[in-house]
UniProtKB/TrEMBL annotation:
Domain RING-type residues, every copy: 85-128
One BP annotation, GO: protein ubiquitination
Pfam families: zf-RING_2 (PF13639)
InterPro entries found in the cross-reference section: Znf_RING, Znf_RING/FYVE/PHD
Organism this protein belongs to: Canavalia gladiata (Sword bean)
Assigned keywords, A-Z: Membrane, Metal-binding, Transmembrane, Transmembrane helix, Zinc, Zinc-finger
Transmembrane stretches, start-end: 15-39
Protein name per Swiss-Prot or TrEMBL: RING-type domain-containing protein
Keyword Zinc-finger: yes
Single GO MF annotation: ubiquitin protein ligase activity
Stored PROSITE patterns: ZF_RING_2
């Protein structure tokens, strides 16, 4: 018993990795040639596909979206605004539409927070403070109940 003189099973992965390395070099060479010829966007698609919207938006997400204000980042009057959105980590720019939460005062891109609410989340993604202030919760629940289409006699207790 002993070890074989050569490990042939280790040669195949090395050859495969070298082949991939050569393919990567050829791709880079073709890309440089296309850039030199002025066809640098040949590999990039021209179509910008829209983000997939959720098929179903909950009633609570729609109502919360009505309550939370949408403003442009440049119009925001904050002494020390955050540099970036905590959800997508992109920096805020002047024309970005943002939502400012009323309870915790955190701000997020409108699309980021709307997507978060689309998953039926009702709290801040950063600190988990509820979106709806405590003093507005009863009115929100009443509007939510009314929007659900369930008759009032199920909502009120019978005395």
């Amino acid at each position: 018993m002993g070890f074989p003189v050569a490990y042939t099973e280790l040669m195949l992965p090395k050859l495969f990795l070298q082949f991939l390395s050569v393919l990567g070099f050829i791709r880079k060479l073709i890309t440089i040639l296309l850039c030199y010829m002025g066809l640098h966007d040949f590999f990039e698609p021209d179509i910008a596909w829209p983000d997939r919207m959720p098929e179903f938006q909950s009633v609570s997400a729609l109502l919360i979206g009505e309550i939370l204000p949408v403003v442009k980042f440049s119009d925001l009057a904050v002494v020390d605004p955050p540099e970036s959105c905590a959800v997508c980590l992109y920096e805020f720019e002047g024309e970005d539409e943002i939502r400012r939460l009323t309870n915790c005062r955190h701000i997020f891109h409108r699309g980021c927070l709307d997507r978060w609410m689309g998953y039926d989340q009702r709290t801040c993604p950063l600190c988990r403070t509820p979106f709806i202030p405590h003093h507005m919760q009863a009115a929100f629940n009443h509007r939510l109940w009314a929007a659900s289409g369930i008759p009032d006699f199920y909502y009120h207790d019978h005395e």
